[in-house]
Amino acid sequence: MASVMYALLLCLSAGALSMVQGEDPYLFFTWNVTYGTISPLGVPQQAILINGQFPGPNINSTSNNNIVLNVFNNLDEPFLVTWNGVQQRKNSWQDGTLGTMCPIAPGTNFTYRFQVKDQIGSYMYYPVTAMHRAAGGFGGLRINSRLLIPVPYADPEDEYTVMIGDWYTKSHTALKKILDSGRTMGRPTGVLINGKNAKGDGKDEPLFTMKPGKTYKYRVCNVGLKNSLNFRIQGHPLKLVEMEGSHTVQNTYESLDVHVGQCFSLLVTADKEPKDYYMVASTRFTKTVLTGKGIIRYENGNGPASPELPEAPVGWAWSLNQFRSFRWNLTASAARPNPQGSYHYGKINITRTIKIVNSASKVDGKLRYAVNGVSHVESETPLKLAEYFGVADKVFKYDTIEDEPPATVEDKITLAPNVVNQTFRDFVEIIFENHEKSIQSWHLDGYSFFAVAIEPGRWTPEKRKNYNLLDGVSRHTIQVFPKSWAAIMLTFDNAGMWNVRSEQPERCYLGQQFYVSVLSPARSLRDEYNLPETAQLCGIVKDLPKPPPYSS
Ligand SMILES: *[C@@H]1O[C@H](CO)[C@@H](O)[C@H](O)[C@H]1NC(C)=O
Ligand SMILES: *[C@@H]1O[C@H](CO)[C@@H](O)[C@H](O)[C@H]1NC(C)=O
Ligand SMILES: *[C@@H]1O[C@H](CO)[C@@H](O)[C@H](O)[C@H]1NC(C)=O
Ligand SMILES: *[C@@H]1O[C@H](CO)[C@@H](O)[C@H](O)[C@H]1NC(C)=O
Ligand SMILES: *[C@@H]1O[C@H](CO)[C@@H](O)[C@H](O)[C@H]1NC(C)=O
Ligand SMILES: *[C@@H]1O[C@H](CO)[C@@H](O)[C@H](O)[C@H]1NC(C)=O
User: ∠ CA 532-538-542 to the nearest 5 degrees?
Assistant: First the structure.
């Protein structure tokens, strides 16, 4: 890859880097973000390209690599991407959310600098600004295991990134206008796999090629806007090996439900008749099922893919049972942030329970989505910067929502920046309770959490009896079915300002998100990196003197 330079840190100008981790290699990337025209569903439309590509280029890294990525924003609007699931240990400065960073102004460039510390797995990046994700600007991000760390399966012949998602033929500006005017953006037009949908006319180019007899790893992420997707490959079982950074117990599935924002790594062996096969992604829980497909070709195979697509499962119960079958492989070694806290999470005392209730309602005649009655609004000054510069009180109030929201919380929505104050290093239980009729997908930045339960109905403390306190998968995104709840547990040991958001951008844009402020009282470099020299400043902190740096 021409834009990637691989180099060891020998001598790098001081100050250019906010962190210095001796021998961990650096990966350098340059991104040119531009508009372009694509026609994935036959209708020409404006898209956001990265280095001319839609979806954007893959970032291929290895645990602990340092990533230096210079983004040139050649759009006519501010732009920012986040690294969904990359934990940014001590470094929410680079998280790419509007609560932690100033967006990159049009016609300017900004260089992200972060380390993929103690993580492995399949991730994705996507834009957080102005419904940009509906136009592209997203792509895959891999963190490979370091060579010395055993991986619980044989090296695959090759690895393929598969970005699936529902897709609108309306432009992101049209969709944003609809949302700004207080309406919902309605249903998508189709489903894309890596930016394409095979026509099935015999002229489709294959997305991937497999050698007969070999096993491949497919890294599948749902980067769509609204719908859960069922993913399957004609005639080929899928062996699940990794989910959002954790090696799983290796169950085999005919198909997998991938909810918005989630990623899975699947092993597929090319042991069938050598010809073409379709991979299929189709919407779940929708009246009209939209289907996207792409061709996988056997090398030297002959014959087209059968037009008969494997059937998708029906109903919620199937999906819930699939969730329950996911188990963490406790004996697999892998890079893990905070390994001490990882193994016996079921034995740690809960110090706080936060119940999150999502709701949708009109405010002054306009649709808004809320968390415990508060619909988040972005402030011009990123929350983290306001807090760091000591002017938080001019930008937001802490704790406008309650941990135990009253039963009437859905009746009224108020608009405000939504920030929860969380004590550093406490072990916390978060319940996501969904009283709505649609599926939710929740994501937490800065951490992985233990997904211990999803159940229909309402949560009560007695439900803790049913938690998986042994081998729940440590992950960063969890779905909540309609009229159901989900429980997660984690130790808030990563200082910073962290976004908890709906992975569905329509909901996120209209306020279904909040931030958790985790401050280390020590103001120490042990707990958090300093504000990078290169951080962009905006809003009321633009011309303020910088506070004294953290001490070591
Ligand atoms: C980015 O792409 C645009 C359009 O192709 C081109 O005009 C511009 O020179 C490129 N900028 C950089 C920094 O490569
Ligand atoms: C990704 O990085 C790994 C480790 O450096 C390397 O072995 C592999 O070939 C790379 N894959 C691609 C597609 O660049
Ligand atoms: C913008 O790009 C130039 C050229 O690559 C680089 O020297 C500079 O550091 C970048 N600026 C920022 C703010 O990242
Ligand atoms: C878990 O990982 C271990 C160690 O790599 C491996 O031997 C084992 O097969 C894995 N177990 C399952 C059920 O996948
Ligand atoms: C957890 O709480 C129980 C009951 O309050 C207490 O006996 C126990 O010592 C606590 N354990 C830890 C590790 O703090
Ligand atoms: C946040 O909580 C910590 C202790 O849990 C407390 O010391 C601090 O004052 C709180 N901060 C705010 C702004 O409420």
Answer: 80
Domain boundary among 279, 298, 325: 325
Q: Which domain holds residue 418?
A: 340-541
Q: What is the pLDDT of residue 148?
A: 87
The protein residue whose alpha carbon is closest to atom 10 in ligand 1 is: 32
Residue 144 in contact with ligand 2 by CB distance below 6 A: yes
Angle at 516 between CA 447 and CA 492, to 5 degrees: 45
Nearest residue (by CA) to ligand 4, atom 6, is: 152
Same domain, yes or no: 206 and 104: no
**How far, in Å, is the centroid of ligand 3 from the Cα of 70?**
7
Cα separation, 94 vs 110, in Å, equals: 11
CB 216 within 8 A of CB 159: yes
Is residue 181 domain-shared with residue 223, that is, in the same domain?
Answer: yes
Instruction: Tell me whether residue 34 is in a domain.
Output: yes
* 308 Cβ contact list (under 8 Å, min separation 6): none
What value does the mean pLDDT take over residues 500-525? Answer: 97
Is the shortest distance between the CB of 70 and ligand 3 below 6 Å? Answer: yes
C-alpha 309 chain-centroid distance: 29
Mean pLDDT of 115-141: 97
Nearest CA to ligand 2 atom 8: 60
Q: Per the structure block, which two tokens stand in for 501?
A: 């958001």
Considering the domain boundaries, does residue 477 fall inside one? Answer: yes
Question: What is the Cα–Cα distance from 363 to 484, expressed in whole angstroms?
Answer: 25
Give the integer Cα–Cα distance in Å for 84 and 263.
Answer: 10
Under DSSP, is residue 4 helix (H, G, I), strand (E, B) or coil?
A: coil
Domain membership flag for residue 505: yes
- Ligand 1: lining residues by beta carbon, under 6 Å: 32, 34, 72, 74
Ligand 1 center to residue 33 CA distance, Å? 8
Number of structural domains the chain divides into:
3
Structure tokens at 12: 């790098």
How far is the centre of ligand 5, averaged over its atoms, from the C-alpha of 469 (Å)?
Answer: 16
Torsion over CA: 287, 187, 35, 514 (sign): negative
Q: Is 307:277 a contact under the CB 8 Å cutoff?
A: no
- Please state the atom number of ligand 3 nearest to the C-alpha of residue 71: 14
- β pairing state of 139-144 and 59-62: parallel
Predicted structure pTM score: 0.94
> Which atom from ligand 3 is nearest to the alpha carbon of 108?
1
Residue with tokens 């100050």: 15
Q: What is the pLDDT of residues 387-440, one digit of tens each?
A: 999 999 999 999 999 999 999 999 999 999 999 999 999 999 999 999 999 999
Please write the tens of the pLDDT for every residue from 266-319. 999 999 999 999 999 999 999 999 999 999 999 999 999 999 999 999 999 999
Does residue 52 come out as left (phi exceeding 0), alpha (psi in the -120 to 50 range) or beta? left
Q: Is residue 442 part of a domain?
A: yes
